[in-house]
Amino acid sequence: NLMMQQALVPINLRWSHATNTLALIDYALAGEGVHFIEADVCYDAAVGPYMAHAATDITTLLEKHQNSFLSWLDYLTKKRTSLSQPGLKLDFKMAEAVRPSIDRLLQARYPVWLNADILKGPRGFDPVFDAAEFIQAGLRHPNATLSLGWTTGVVKRGADSIGYSKEMIDE
């Protein structure tokens, strides 16, 4: 469709970030020309994957059930129309969420990006993902784009800014 043709020029991409609730899906789709919906995925053993930027954002099982990845994805799929067919970028926050989410995404009929911070970056913490396992899991989805990132830390005011080292990039 025309919207995705325009999206082939990266500067034209419009994103809806942290679209982790059904209300935020409605808001994103009501706007003009959102090409990709980005959302964050956590995991709870009792619930499975659920939508939250951090595990501490949602603390009760009821809230986790209400924000389950399955209900979120079903809602998004039903809301997509011929006029608004954004792709999906999932930002995985917990390694346990990856495989069950990808299993469900195999039915998706639209562009999917899978993101995780799999490498340690400047001032970063150790990743919660095994890089090879994330890549292997992501490759199970034949139409997904893998978006691989580095963990980063906070740069305090007045501190020297450090960038990515050659070793980080080569890894």
TrEMBL record:
Protein name: Menorin-like domain-containing protein
All residue ranges annotated as the Menorin-like domain in the record: 12-171
Organism, scientific name: Beta vulgaris subsp. vulgaris (Beet)
PANTHER family in alphabetical order: CONSERVED PLASMA MEMBRANE PROTEIN, MENORIN (DENDRITIC BRANCHING PROTEIN)
Family: Belongs to the menorin family.
Highest taxon of source: Eukaryota
One term under GO cellular component: extracellular space
InterPro entries per record: Menorin_dom
